[in-house]
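[Archive record]
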Amino acid sequence: MAKTEIRPERVQLEGREVALVGERWASERPRGLALLLHGGGQTRHSWSRTAAALAHEGWTTFSLDARGHGESGWATDGDYSADALVDDLERVVRSLDSSLARGTTARFDALPVLIGASMGGLTALLAEGERGPLARSLVLVDVVPRVERAGVERILRFMTQHLDGFASLEEVAQAVHAYNPHRSRPTQLDGLKKNVRQHADGRWYWHWDPALMRRDLDEPTRAVNTERLLVAASQVRVPTLVVRGGRSDVVSVAGVEELLERLPSGRYVDVEAAGHMVAGDENDAFTRSIVEHLATLT
């Protein structure tokens, strides 16, 4: 029997002095809440297939645009630090409770499972380790405290090469494919409009605030101190799944092992054919690993 299509509902939540936009994928018989946090330079749309799958598995799921990304507000003071992102996340989590599962009388643990990729994963790790309990569980996607410098530099080059925009969506497609050549080149150019905005000059610009890259910081995750992240990990008490892309040039096996030594309740899965953008590269395998993890939660 075919699954009933679950359509997302646009929602607006409040961060620290910035409005945050997201989508809510409601489950008719919710087992809990899941909150999806994208990586630097991405949007909530990078999670669409995973969000729908989790909703079908009984998890009312929220996918959020981080400050300065997608439809969320830009920081008027240019603050995209880790602390600002954690402040936003804490406010969002505090606002989520079982009343958000409208249309059902079910009650469940109101703390969400926090699923974060790269920047989103670091935000979730710091939030839970330093300000928890905020999560029922963590899923950290291709993120560790000690990243591989070459992979980070490749991300930086990609994000800073086109700050002057693109003349066409075709140019956007070429840039995306050049960065991630093992993934099929986009053929439906209209789909790229979720990642860029057309300005009055007719050129297409990335959806994120250029101030993200203007400060003297060395990565989109805002250069969080490694030791701070390791200390935060040692203070996490909820079940944690670390998902690594097998082809990632940002996260090494050694980096995962170092993180797991600090996580009291951590375990690890490798999505062999994926690079750093695990959900985009191998969505079915990635989502399956998340569903299997969620099934272990009581």
Summary: Confidence is low (pLDDT under 50) at residues 98-107, 216-221. Residues 152-213 form one domain. DSSP finds nine helices and ten strands in the chain.
